[in-house]
Specification:
14% helix, globular, disordered C terminus, Hpr_kin/Pase_C, ATP binding, P-loop_NTPase, phosphorelay sensor kinase activity
């Protein structure tokens, strides 16, 4: 059994897990906190282990989340979740692909579809919710070729 260890956070809504990826300081824990206040479950903060398609926190970090400026907080958590989306956080001022190319659309390590996002934006949790709706088939993602104003 292969374990993929990631510097990431993970939340879950229903059966759908969301991996939050990004460089240190990109806002993974901050966005995770915002998702938790919207009813998502905590799976892992700062470190994620992917095993047989399931994400979980390493044993020593289960139920722990960093609240910057406050400290490490212990709270209820979900043992594991099956990720369906990878959110790639970009630094403030860094360009977010408007319409990602095919190579930007999937994470190479996990094979998951990628949502590129500035996690500090007020709309960040809404963008994650919409991506999950599309992946669940409750909203329709148009072909990039069909996008109005796209670079076709």
């Amino acid at each position: 059994m292969t374990i993929l260890r990631l510097h990431a956070s993970c939340a879950a809504r229903g059966e759908a897990g969301v991996l939050l990826l990004g460089a240190p300081g990109a806002g993974k824990s901050s966005l995770l906190l915002r998702l938790l206040t919207r009813g998502y479950d905590l799976v892992a903060d700062d470190r994620v282990e992917l095993r047989d398609g399931l994400a979980s926190a390493p044993l020593a970090l289960r139920g722990l989340i960093e609240v910057r400026g406050w400290g490490i907080v212990q709270r209820s958590f979900r043992q594991s979740a099956r990720p369906v989306l990878a959110v790639q956080l970009v630094a403030e001022g860094e360009k977010v692909p408007r319409l990602p190319t095919d190579t930007e659309s999937y994470n190479r390590k996990t094979g998951l579809p990628v949502l590129w996002l500035n996690g500090t934006l007020a709309s960040a949790p809404d963008s994650i919710d919409m991506a999950l709706e599309c992946l669940a088939g409750r909203a329709c993602l148009l072909s990039r070729d069909a996008m109005p104003g796209g670079d076709n």
